[in-house]
Amino acid sequence: xxxxxxxxxVSVAPGKxxxxxxxxxxxxxxxxxxxxQKPGQAPVLVISYDSDRPSGIPERFSxxxxxxxxxxxxxxxxxxxxxxxxxxxxxTSSDHVVFGGGTKLTVL
Amino acid sequence: QVQxxxxxxxxxxxxxxxxxxCAASGFTFSGYAAHWVRQAPGKGLEWVAVIxxxxxxxxxxxxxxGRFTISRDNSKNTLYLQMNSLxxxxxxxxxxxxxxxxxxxxFDIWGQGTMVTVSS
Lengths: 108, 120
Known about the structure:
Helix content of chain A: under 10%
Structural class of chain A: mainly beta
Number of strands of chain B: 11
Oligomer: heterodimer
Number of helices of chain B: 0
Radius of gyration of chain B: 13 Å
Number of strands of chain A: 9
Distance between the termini of chain A: 36 Å
Largest interface: A-B, 25 and 20 residues
Helix content of chain B: under 10%
Order of helices and strands of chain A: EEEEEEEEE
Radius of gyration of chain A: 13 Å
Shape of chain A: globular
């Protein structure tokens, strides 16, 4: 089955840029979605179809996807961005949704 | 407003059954696929099942296939998850989520979640 690999944690200082990666075999051929989840809350979609930003999501959030790695980039990081971030794809070979293991973003 | 509201969670003994519901409002429920996603305490997100917008297609995670059944009643704007033969490892918060027109769409709307605890 398709596997998505994320780093367990990423740390960044306020105002800097955070990059959270999501690795998978030829993931560039799939559409990747990204979710933000704060403690005790339901996940929120922050990037869909690799790089589309839903209404209400700040322009500081962007996404890219190529080769074996998809990346969520957050520029000018704020304390409120501290959360877990999950990547997700639809695996057509198994007709399954696959989530990455999640990355905890810590704002120093 | 657009929202999903889950209900039906609780404490249940191993081997017993439970049915979760997810009531949709504020959008045309019948136009979207719908998913169940769960999260065990302190763990990441785990996809459980999806049903197509018209109920004609259903897919399940290997961990629940044969035990759980996803269904929907578009006339009642409600999604269901029938969970049988429950195990301790099914303990989690269960979220319903709106997908796209197809099964590959992003989950743009989530419910607040309902807790299921499987314990004797």
